[in-house]
Amino acid sequence: MSRQRRSGAIDTDSGTESGGARKKKASATQVDLSGFKALRSVMRIRPFRRLWVVTGVASLGDWLGLLATATFASAQVSGSAAKGLAFGSVIAVRLLPALVLGPVAGVMADRFDRRLTMVICDLLRFVLFASIPAVALFTEAPEITIGWAAIATFLIETVTLMWIPAKEAAVPNLIPKARLEIANQLTLITTYGITPVLAGLSIAALDRVTRAGGTTPPEWAEASNLALYFNALSRLAMALVVFVGIKEISGRAVGPRTEHQSMLRQFVEGWKYVGKTPLVRGLVFGILGAFAGGGIVIGTAQFFAKSLNAGDAAFYLLFGTLFVGLGVGIAVGPAVVRDLSRRRWFGMSIVLAGASVLVLAASIHLTMALLGALLVGAGAGMAFLSGVTLLGGEVGDDVRGRVFAFVQTAVRVVLMLAIALSSSLVGLGGSRQLTIADLGISISSTRLLLLAAGLFGIFTGISAFRQMDDKPGVPVLPDLWGSIRGRPLSAGEKFVPRGVFVVFEGGEGAGKSTQVTALADALRRDGHDVVVTREPGATDVGQRIRSLVLGRHSGAGLAPRAEALLYAADRADHVATVVRPALGRGAVVISDRYVDSSLAYQGAGRTLPVEEVSWLSSWATGGLKPDLVVLLDIDPRAGLERVAARGAGADRLESESVSFHDRVRYAFLDLADADPKRYLVVDATQPTGEIAALVHDRVGDILPDPPPPPPAEEVADALNTFAEADRP
Ligand SMILES: Nc1ncnc2c1ncn2[C@@H]1O[C@H](COP(=O)(O)OP(=O)(O)OP(=O)(O)O)[C@@H](O)[C@H]1O
Ligand SMILES: Cc1cn([C@H]2C[C@H](O)[C@@H](COP(=O)(O)O)O2)c(=O)[nH]c1=O
């Protein structure tokens, strides 16, 4: 059985109009999902708008706080080694709580009121952030100020671990599912694009202002202290806005509350859910793979810059480009892939990031490395956006907090391990120059690690894709390409054909009816269950359509598009009520004409865009393709003579010009050329018996031998509804 038929992908573009008209129509249907209007519509959701504003302010505060705590700690000691140690320790302390407390945080987010959890966490963070510079006001001892900065940072991070799952799990309840992606886009761009840059600029500006004129500011007015106070106040503001202004966060979308379960039980259930649900498993696997790869890129970045014979500036440039790519992926990705399945997009984005790491590994010049870094960032950004949106939109409310907590914990652990391991590993390996042609390529442990990271990224992307794919069997690249052009392929109708589908095609008078009958008789003699059918006109509706399109008087002025639609309508009814049921019961279905006739007559003959006629047919048939097409090829002059000899007069299409029929003939031949395995092209001027023997032989190759037993009686009864379609 042909694989194409089983896969049954359909191009779901919305019509046959061309150019601007189609674009207008497409954007009209997408207006609720993308673009500026979508942005406006999500901003109209009051609770989200408020949350977005305070999250932006708080995120600015957090980035300021991160920079400030680190610079604050190093400012308390002297000597570069001590400063470096102090700086590094504060950053490391921020990552530690995840190891112990991450999973518990998820249970809290699913167990307790999320709004109160957020408010209490923010009040605690307000106090803790403010306490860091405040303690320094009361003591001169650096061990106390640094010690407290480290303890406070640890506590802040612990509290943050509780806050994030509560917030992330609540957001999808505030926004309709269709708006979730744009809402996430907005939040991620604000949190990882705008506010870190603003924070860096603000802290530098603060430093300049407070030291203007060469004066040393009082300790409380140091830039890092002011930043920490701002951070504290932004958290207080967040607590107040969430408590007073976004009461909706307390609401639950679906599912029963789970307070009756013990915390331990909830914790175990959360892990089980992640392990057992293919979508979540795929997401988690993909996210972790991406972060592991990202960690290796970060861990090796400095050595990599050196391997390009570039200095520190190149390192920063690469790093900056990676973030630009991340932003581009998040901001532009959805507009590029349009209606591509988000599950597929997630896997593909990870594969893109992995493949781009390979570009990095193979870079022989800084420009190539920059391109690689840009694409790594773009892939990661798109994976991040689609991953978060999928988690928010497809994970049930009652377990969402635990899933987010699981992901955030695992991400931190994997990232830390990947950075630590890769940076120590690159230190161990040596580097030597290998000259290929005139290119000096540096093979070093850094590049080998990048190579491994890239391959690992591709592997995890593919695995995630496989686990989560919601369009199995639909070819990946045509689906991606179709989506970019606004014509995603939709999954074929769920249908497992048992029978075999043979179609006869050809011009007028080629001898199709004669050969259909001969083949059906021969196969019946061989013991096969055979259904003979045709287009147009195999069903009651089809009969009426046939008289509309072929009647010499009724359809005289029929517009080509109307003609194409009528044939498609006949086909849709024919496939749904005759062909699929017969194939489903295991019969051999022989049809006199099918999709190719539309491509040849309406496409080439009427000169409608063949691609669009093809889409129309794919949609009408739900992607059903024949196993074999027998093309009876004949010069139209000879074929039309045979028709005339029948003496019944020419129908509307037979009356078309010879050049029309020539175009039809060559279109049939082109189709056969493009897919030779699925076609048998026969010279239709041969004697009837010889043609019949050739066809019987070829069909024998694809038929089950011996013929399958007839279906059970009750199934046969059910299918008999369609048996009367065994005509023309
Ligand atoms: N191989 C052949 N050699 C000579 N004549 C043939 C051959 N096959 C069929 N014919 C004759 O040609 C005429 C058209 O045959 P047939 O109806 O089978 O063709 P068709 O392709 O189904 O036509 P249409 O396009 O009108 O449906 C008939 O009179 C038939 O007897
Ligand atoms: C299915 C199909 C058919 N046609 C044309 C081709 C013929 O001129 C008639 C069918 O007549 P026949 O005697 O049954 O062969 O319809 C078409 O133009 N487009 C189609 O999709």
From TrEMBL:
Broad enzyme group: transferase
Entry keyword Nuclease: no
Ranges of residues in domain Thymidylate kinase-like: 504-692
Ranges in coiled-coil conformation: none
EC number: 2.7.4.9
Catalysed reactions listed for this entry: dTMP + ATP = dTDP + ADP
Matching InterPro entries: MFS_trans_sf, P-loop_NTPase, Thymidylate_kin-like_dom, Thymidylate_kin_CS, Thymidylate_kinase
Key word Kinase present: yes
Binding-site residues for ATP, renumbered to this chain: G506, G507, E508, G509, A510, G511, K512, S513
Positions of transmembrane segments: 51-73, 85-109, 116-138, 144-165, 186-206, 226-246, 282-301, 313-333, 345-364, 370-391, 403-428, 448-465
Family: Belongs to the thymidylate kinase family.
Function statement: Phosphorylation of dTMP to form dTDP in both de novo and salvage pathways of dTTP synthesis.
Name of the featured protein: Thymidylate kinase
Organism: Phytohabitans aurantiacus
